Inverse folding.
């Protein structure tokens, strides 16, 4: 199973780096529009959202800015590498972020900004690959799988269409999504109908 997952990770990394700049910009724009639609449907008080790595992940900068501009509390993760876990902290703008673990932008981690209520909200989840059953393949560190075990809100995975599969290798501890958004469609797995285009 581990070898299967690593092979698929390598395949998806190659697919993503092979996308040219224009393709990525257009795909990110379409994913942003669909994510805004989901935010309007769910009306979350808190948006838990990863800060994207430019070379590999669906861009979340516009999503974060949109939520802040519309009065939604935005919480972004900070890795606690000693515990292999993430903590989430609210931000007022992206200028508050600094380079942290794995070269990813993170919040400073001030206690007064820490979000500890994981019972509700919308969590935007990164992944290298997803499948039509809502299953996710992450980067292999397990940070999001551990976080999502205690998250009680709605989860949406962001993915480029080239990294969507009919089925991916899956283990019991791997978190499944309530919704997956690509540049071509929204796949719902919890209480809504899938939409395309």
């Amino acid at each position: 199973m581990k070898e299967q997952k690593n092979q698929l990770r390598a395949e998806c990394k190659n697919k993503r780096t092979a996308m040219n700049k224009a393709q990525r910009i257009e795909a990110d724009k379409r994913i942003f529009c669909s994510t805004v639609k989901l935010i309007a449907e769910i009306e979350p008080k808190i948006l838990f959202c990863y800060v994207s790595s430019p070379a590999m992940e669906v861009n979340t900068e516009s999503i974060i800015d949109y939520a802040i501009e519309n009065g939604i509390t935005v919480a972004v993760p900070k890795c606690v590498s000693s515990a292999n876990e993430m903590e989430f902290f609210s931000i007022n703008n992206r200028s508050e972020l600094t380079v942290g673990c794995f070269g990813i932008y993170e919040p400073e981690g001030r206690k007064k900004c820490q979000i500890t209520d994981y019972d509700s909200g919308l969590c935007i989840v990164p992944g290298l690959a997803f499948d039509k059953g809502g299953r996710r393949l992450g980067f292999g560190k397990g940070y999001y799988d551990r976080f999502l075990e205690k998250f009680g809100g709605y989860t949406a995975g962001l993915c480029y269409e080239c990294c969507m599969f009919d089925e991916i290798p899956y283990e019991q501890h791997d978190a499944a999504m309530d919704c997956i958004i690509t540049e071509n469609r929204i796949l719902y797995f919890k209480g809504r109908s899938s939409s395309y285009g």
About this structure: The chain has a mean pLDDT of 90. The chain has four helices and 14 strands. The longest helix spans residues 21-42.
